[in-house]
Each structure stands twice: as C-alpha cells, then as structure tokens.
Design brief:
By secondary structure, this protein is mainly alpha-helical. It has twelve helices and three strands; from the N terminus they run H-H-H-H-H-H-H-H-H-H-H-E-E-E-H. Strand 1 and strand 2 form a beta hairpin. Helix 3 packs antiparallel against helix 8, helix 8 packs across helix 9 and helix 11 packs across helix 12. The chain is globular, with a radius of gyration of 24 Å.
Amino acid sequence: MLLKNLFFALWPLDKEKRRRAKQIKQITGFYPGSLFCYEQALRHHSASKTIHQNGSRDSNERLEFLGDAMLNSVIAEYLFKKFPFQDEGFLTQMRSKIVSRESLNELALKIQLNKLVVYDKRTMQNLTIRNSIFGNALEAFLGAIYLDGGFYTCRTFILEQLIKYHVDVDKLQKTETNFKGRLIEQGQKEAVPVEFLTEENNQGKQKIFLVSAVYNNQVIGVAENLNKKKAEQLAAQKAIEKLNQIQVNQTRFTAQDLQIEDR
C-alpha cells in the first residue's frame, strides 16, 4: 500500500482527478490505486450513463452489492468476537442496527462522503432516494476499497475508520429498534389481540404506507412512511409510548387514592 501511495503521488493525472484522489485519501487514509473504482462508487444512478446494450449504466449499484456483502461479513465477525456469549438472535439484531439504512446514511455524513457523491439534485425531491443515497454510496465505496486494496484493506477501513470512531456499539446495544415485536409480545402477555392495518396512498410517483397499530381492538398508534416495515415500527413505537403513558397515569391515580385514604 505504501508503494501504491508513492506511485500515485508521482502519477501525472490532470488537476481535477488529482483533487478527487486527495479527497478520497482524506477519507481512506491512502491514495487510490484505481481511481476509476471510486469514481464509479460515488456516481449515483441519476447521474450515470448507459454503457451496455442490455441497459446497464455506469452507476454505483453493482459496487453497492459488493460493498454490502463485505460490510455484513466484517460486522458479523466483529460482533461474534466482541460478544462471545450472546446468541444468534442478539448478534443478528445488533448487526441490523449497525448496517440499517439510517445508520449507514449517518456514517456517510460523519466521514463526509456525501460531499463526493455525484447525483442529479432533482432526485433529492424523492424521499426514498434522499434517505438512502449516501448510505448506498458508502456501501459502494466499500466495494471500491475491496477491489482496489483487497479484503484486509477493506476490513481495516470498516473497523478502524467507521466502527472505532463513529459507532458506539455499547450504546447501540441498549437502543430499542424492534417496537413491533415488543408490542406483539406485550399483547401476548396481556392476552389481547394486536394487528397492523395498512393503507397505501400515492403521492405523485411515490407510494406512502399508512399503518395503524391496533391493540385490543383500539387504534393507539398511527404512522406513515415510504417503507412499509418502517411505518409499522413507527406506529408500534407510538403505541408503546401511549401504553406506557396510560400505565403511568393509572399509577398516579392509585397513589392519589392511597393518599386520600390515609387522610
């Protein structure tokens, strides 16, 4: 890698490509050996061109597929070693928290990868794209690192540049994300029915999912999102918050009654 850095530093690229290479080095810690890979990783579909008669484009989608596989593999190994006595369910849930679309978007912003992504600004009007474009680019970027420097270079970047400085695993361990499962479990404990009712609404070209969380035949949580599963989790979260508030109010009422009786 040191030889590659020296080679690139002496390579007579044009001014724009040299600037681009330095920007990538600021994120990875090394000059890219194949600048082309990184340029493609940072090119969103909206700014790409058709390069094959089958309709394939020079976007970052294929590299995203590769980077996603790398990321899941490295995170799985990391969690397996960090939590030697936890079961498969715990490890799977923890990995899901780290590689979720929201988490990857945040990571991309933290390392300022978003400043390098090339895309059509008009696509940001689409909520789905706005919530995923930089996280997808990060996965593609990892794919480029893998092709450029190999497995261990990519693994080191994930662990040393992303996890070490930008992911608080211990805090994440305590963060609740599966609100739907928690609400269903609560219903089973109380022996009451729990269901999620979904309505689909079209807003322009976008499909919006409106989900109602029904607990004991009463709607106690409603949320909408472009992603159906996300809408269900948000509705369940609101339902749980309402159930907790009801429980708190009942506790307060009982305490007041006790005070009155004491008097």
